[in-house]
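Input record (one chain):
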Amino acid sequence: MSEKKKKAIKSKKKDFDIRDLVGKCLQLPKVNRKEFWAKEMVLLKRLLEKYPNTEFWKKATLKVVPSFAIYLTTEDRYIAAKYQEFLFQPQTPKDEIIIAEKVGEDYNKEIKPKTVKDFLK
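The corresponding structure, as predicted from the sequence alone:
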């Protein structure tokens, strides 16, 4: 490989990095980091299968929890609601409003005199 290709590969940053997501959503432990990361990556992949939209995971502000297992069990309704809220697209009416011809007479407001000269006219 040429040096330009190597630099291009290194400079490319993934659009979605699951490690950043783990740091954003979980409380990181001080000890047993290897076991923690292995377990949480498996759980996160399950969550990504269930809720596959990566934009949701990048933009959502979720509760900071000790493990993704909570999102798969007790907080399942919470994350499902957040996901549905993110995907919600309100229906907009597509009917065009056609304005017809004028109906009725125009209102002509009577101009009151402001000065004595206007009053005498």
